[in-house]
Specification:
heterodimer, A: alpha+beta, Heat Shock Protein 90, two-stranded antiparallel ribbon, 18% strand, B: 129 residues, Rossmann fold, five-stranded parallel β-sheet, 5 helices
Chain lengths: 249, 129
Amino acid sequence: MKQVFAGEHERAVANSTLLSVMRRMASPLRHDLAGAVLIPSLRLQMLRRQLGAAAPDYERLQAKVDEVIVALDAVRKAQIGACGWLEQRDDTPVPLADALAAAMATFSLPFSTRGVGLENRGASASQSLSYAAQPLQLLLHAGFFLALDQAPPASTLLVSCAADAGGARVSWHFEADQAATDGARLSADFPPEGIEIAGERLTPSGVAALCRTFGARFESDFAHAPAQVLVLGTLYLPALFNILIEAPL
Amino acid sequence: MTYARRVVVADDNREIADLLSELIASFGYEVRTCYDGLQARALIALEWPHLAILDISMPELNGCDLARWIRTQDEGRSIRLIALTGHCGVEDCAHMLAAGFDEILPKPFDMGRLQTVLEAGAEGERRTA
């Protein structure tokens, strides 16, 4: 599927959104790498302390060195994974449900730190559909970052997924926590008071432009939302979705 | 200088939790190790340690939610809470401090930083004793 641009402005918006997503993924990628590096670091510290003992047990020390070598191999794998994300060139097909579950795991912490719940609804419908790994993750992450930027306090982000012959739809919408709202409708004024969003904040139009770049569609629709529900948007992935691996930059 | 102080270490990565606990114990601290947030909450409520080093990304109950809960408890107000994390963006750190952590110990950390954190906890304990 070819890239279709309405114009230079749209291209610029898509590129800007792509850069924002890539920059903001630095934190989870750094988290994975940091955890991997910490293990050999701790093992070496323990080894150093044992070497300072009056009568070091050399057999035990050798086993410790082997553990460090295994840990360094895990670092290498984490590094390859992080570089793969940055390069955006992994076109291995992955089930949409798996990619969605992985994205939800990545985003559970940032939502939680804002006091916002995260719930997956109906992902089983997407088990049969597979898409190229990295572009799919990119679009899902764009949707989650957008949701993160616009999360109202005291709410739960519900992520639902449906699939049919035409393709798949991933929807994000917020539901007010019952106790907090007492029947009030969620506000569409973003961001909520007290939450400072860094300069990389995404917009629905930016996410839509990014999705179009890859032949997908993102629509934000507040009009049909019932009270206590705030519809953030829906990502439409056509069945014959052949996400280009080329980055639009 | 070492102190026989009670420290809780919680990380869902068992390897990190065990290694860090072993290392801290080698400095003379009494260490309890947990592998998820719920387990850590139960243990903390039982023992009320002087210092708790909590991973942020834990299933069921993450470090920030656990810190918020600890700070709502009478006994939890004086615990020194350290966030152990690889998420070190400005916004991430602000959320952790707002949740009730006293300090952030970024992964990977060096030995000097760990000792400073432990000694600060022991120093605080001496002052409140």
